[in-house]
Amino acid sequence: MLNLGVIYDNDSGVVEGQRKAFDWYQKSADAGDSRAMYKVGQSYYEGCGVDQDYAKAFQWFLKAGNAGEVGAMSKVGQAYYDGRGVDQDYTKAFQWLLKAAKAGDVDAMYNLGVVYYNGDGVDKDDAKAISWFNKAAESGDVEAMYKVGLAYSNALGVQKN
């Protein structure tokens, strides 16, 4: 079912294809497929094939995250951080982002760097921020590469180089 959704989703962005994709994602998610739960959440988040609804997106990301879908864990953390679709809660944001980052999610690694840099829900810690930015940079995140460069340029959490 998930694969049928992907086929329709790749149908050149045509609205009818997006609606059909969403229907198949929903069926697969209802059958317990965590990847499809993530896709349903993403569909609601972006408004693809369905009306945009951040609260529904969050609920589906949460289901997928609880089922072990790493990308969804990152989305849950980001939703808590931004307060989009759920009440803002920096502590929960940190917990979900850390879980996703430890599982290898690059976006979560970068966002943990932001959390530590800003001191949102944790003690501000430039060294930990740079450590997470560095992990994201080593995984190819361009924005994280820039942050690491700035850190070295300004001796922020690292020795000036």
Structure description:
The protein contains nine helices and no strands. It has a domain of 68 residues: Serine Threonine Protein Phosphatase 5, Tetratricopeptide repeat (Alpha Horseshoe), CATH 1.25.40. It is mainly alpha-helical.
List keywords for this structure.
161 residues, mainly alpha, Serine Threonine Protein Phosphatase 5, Tetratricopeptide repeat, 9 helices, elongated
Please render the helix and strand layout as text.
Elements: H1 2-9, H2 15-30, H3 34-46, H4 54-66, H5 70-82, H6 90-102, H7 106-118, H8 126-138, H9 142-154
Helix pairs in contact: 1-2, 2-3, 3-4, 4-5, 5-6, 6-7, 7-8, 8-9
Can you give me a brief rundown of this structure?
The chain is mainly α and 161 residues long.
Mean pLDDT: 89
Report the CATH topology name of one domain: Serine Threonine Protein Phosphatase 5, Tetratricopeptide repeat
Helix and strand pattern: HHHHHHHHH
By CATH reckoning, the class of one domain would read Mainly Alpha
Regions with little confidence, pLDDT below 50 for 5+ residues = none
Radius of gyration from the alpha-carbon trace, in angstroms: 18 Å
Q: What best-fitting shape do the alpha-carbon axes yield?
A: elongated
Give the fraction of residues assigned to helices.
over 70%
Task: State the separation between the terminal residues, measured CA to CA.
Answer: 53 Å
In what range is the share of β-strand residues?
A: under 5%
Q: How many E strands?
A: 0
CATH architecture descriptor text of one domain = Alpha Horseshoe
SS-based class: mainly alpha
Main sheet specs: none
The CATH H-level superfamily of one domain is Tetratricopeptide repeat domain
- State the helix count: 9
